[in-house]
Amino acid sequence: MDREFILSLPLGRLRRVREGGVDLIEVNFAKYRRAAFRILAGVAPKEGLMTLTGHWAAEDVYVGWLNEYFVMYASPRWRVSFTLWHWPHQSPIQDDYDKLAKRVAGFVPELELALRERRTGPHMRRFVIPRHAPINRTDQRL
Q1: Residues ≥6 apart with Cβ < 8 Å to 59
Q2: Ramachandran bin of 104, using left for φ above 0, alpha for ψ from -120 to 50, beta for the remaining angles
C-alpha cells in the first residue's frame, strides 16, 4: 500500500462483528496531513472478500474495497470534511477539540442507520460500485 494511504488512516479501522457481517469504520484524514477528516463505513461479508490479490478475511478488508459503502461528511452536498474550527492566527484550544468531538459523536446514529439498514442520514453519502458493466448485445456485430 502506498505511504499516503497508510498515513491517512492513523487510527486504523474500527471493526464490529455481527450476524450480517463485519461492520467497518475508518476515520480517513485528508491528504498531505491537513487537519480535516471524513468517516467511511461499510459492511464486509462474513466470508470475506475475493480480490485480484487473493482472499481477504472480513476483518482485513478496507471500506473502499467494498461494492457499497458510506461516507460521512460535515456537509455531504459539497463534500466538506470535518475540520477543527478556530480563529485565524490562533492555535486551537482544548474547547475547540471538545466541540468537534461532541459534534461528530452526535452523528453516530447516522452511522448505525447506514450499517444496519443501508440508509443515509443528512451527513451521509452512499457510494455503489457496480459489480460488472452490463453488456448491450444488440450493438455487437458478427
Answers
A1: 15, 17, 22, 44
A2: alpha
The continuous run of DSSP H or E covering 7 comes out as helix 3-7
CA separation, residue 105 to residues 65, 73, 110, 135, 139 (Å) = 25, 13, 10, 44, 51
Q: Is the model's pLDDT at 83 over the cut of 70? A: yes
Angle at 46 between CA 40 and CA 51, to 5 degrees: 70
Q: 3-class DSSP state for residue 115?
A: helix
Cβ proximity of 25 and 111 under 8 Å? yes
The number of beta carbons lying within 10 Å of the beta carbon of residue 38 is: 21
pTM: 0.80
Kindly tell me the sign of the dihedral angle through the C-alpha atoms of 125, 112, 15, 46: negative
* CA 87 vs CA 68, 84, 121: distances in Å: 38, 10, 30
Instruction: Output the pLDDT for position 115.
Output: 96
List b or e across 66-78, with b for residues whose CB sees 16 or more CB atoms inside 10 angstroms: beebbbbbbebee
